[in-house]
Give the backbone structure.
Amino acid sequence: MSLVDSLPYQVPLTFGRAALRVNRWRAERAAPRSKSEHLAPPLKISPRTKELIARHYLEGRYANRHRKVAWVTSGAPVELLKALDFYVLYPENHAALCGTARAVEEIATEAEHAGYSRDVCSYARTDIGAMLSGKTPVGRLPKPDLLLACTNICQTVLFWYRVLAHHFRVPLIVIDTPFIYTEATEHAVKFVQRQLEDAIPLAERVAGKRLDERRLKETTRLSKQASELWLEIMARGKQRPAPISVFDQFIQMAPIVEMRGDAFTVDFYAAMLKEVDERIARGIGAVKDEKKRLLWDNLPIWYRLRYLGEFLAARGVAIVASTYTNAWGELAPFIDPERPLASGARTYLHPILNRGTGYKLATMQRMVAEFQLDGAILHSDRSCKPYSIGQIDQRDRLLREHNVPALLLEADHNDPRAFSEEQVANRLEAFVEMLGV
Amino acid sequence: MAIDIRALGIDVGSTTVKIVGVDAAGNAVWHFIDQADPRVEDQVDEFLARAREVANGNGALPLVATGYGRGLVHQATRKITEITCHARGIYREFRHGGTLVDIGGQDSKVIGIGPQGDVIDFAMNDKCAAGTGRFLENSARRLRVPLEDMGAVALSTTEEVVISSTCTVFAESEIISLIAHGAAVGPILRGLHRSLIKRIVAMVRSVGLVPPLMLSGGVARNPAISRMLEEETEVRVILPREPQLMGAYGAALLALGMTAPA
């Protein structure tokens, strides 16, 4: 491609990146102010997070002009695609971003008008609505050249990605990960590995290049490093007071999900860990007057993050551990950069949603002990059935076998129409009183 | 003659507003109930003026507000949820733990109360009016049966029509259709009570039924509720003297700073 050909995207990209950098510098120089008197000021790393996310979508906007684009599920073996230089878009992350931007109602309605039931996952409805209408708070999404869906998070993705494949008329790779009830069998690992190997020729054909094994090892190594750092950051929540809350994690997790396998993501989390350690050294807690510490189960309620964080902080309650944010760190030990495909098969078989409900209960019990928690909030998420199934039993067992008070809170991760503020507030308030705050 | 009131509790519910005054020993010595007015603040002012009148000379009394409208009671010393207040009121009344069912106008709660009176666990109806007083109220209106007679009418027959919908709006359509098919009022009412009780029993099971089963809230005055709750759970149901006042009474006790029964 000649220089002249590349100008239509190089010019806006260069200027756009520069503008984002300037915005970040400005934000970094301004004294961070707390949004609530009960919360610590936002992390100093926050302007950088904003820059990374904005840059990611800026690059996406012009990606079709010079790169191949893949749309993938959140638990997809992205290292393979990164090694083939794909620009990778995560519709789930984009949907969550629409959630925090309060744009879901309008976008999801587009899908509902096209006949998709409100019982379908609100991420899928947001994505399909964006696909059909072109509506997005990020300007424009690039069209995919390839789709990669991995069934390790739910079965909805199977149908959702077939809709995308039909609409965009592009190839779809499905990686089927058998459900793990207790242990992953060797033949399950082999089965997934074979699918990864089989996916390579198609991915290469779309990418127009051969997979370089050294690049694959490198992206795998970067994935592992970022996941390890993320795991370490979350473990800092064991400190009293906890230097960051789960609400901070919900915001800061964007890079580990959608920029896994990039070197700048490793640098980002290394810097974040340093800042978290500084907070610990200075005795700064995410919640200023931390009296009780809780666990969060299931996806966040994206459109009410700030409200919930401030509501609980005002009552001295900090949510310091979550099964959800943990999901992007706990797989780190499975990743082996020297055996990208074999270890990849094992890694992508083990997300919490692909494991039995007993595993989630055990994870929660471990967190309660390690993070010294006083209770748990289980978000019963109307959209995410695989995450919500088993919660009634998990709640009962936390309470009866482990004496951990637990609240089942009904909402939806992305659809504000399934959220009833007055009732949520009343339940939370009663739960906090029950904890004796 | 002035009544010796030392603390007040007000329960601003969705259907009625209740206020209770307690003496220094935590005995309920005065109360007042009225239909809820949308102008909550004015109504609370009125209630407090009445309290001042009867408590003549006691100055500003500590006040705890509870119920859905508690946030609007700016005169309150503290605002506490109905869960904590009902549990406190009922524990003082019976002086033992157990499982409390509170059916209010807008929501229903099942509260597990420990032997020391502390709230161990609770469940509330999900985000709709199914399983609440409003469910019966709507149906009573549709059937033109006075609310206070509903329970007696339901118990007057052994016949029962199955109401499959627990949704308040859909149940109303179902009633219209049943009437059109010639079903009698008694069996329909009995079926409606059954439907409500089954929702409540599901919540009781999620909290775990530790006897005795206690009942509070305005709907407890309906005799069919306790009877059917006994039938469905096979556990005896006990009622306080003034079930409707338990929230306000608990609030008053909390205002008095009583953490344990006197």
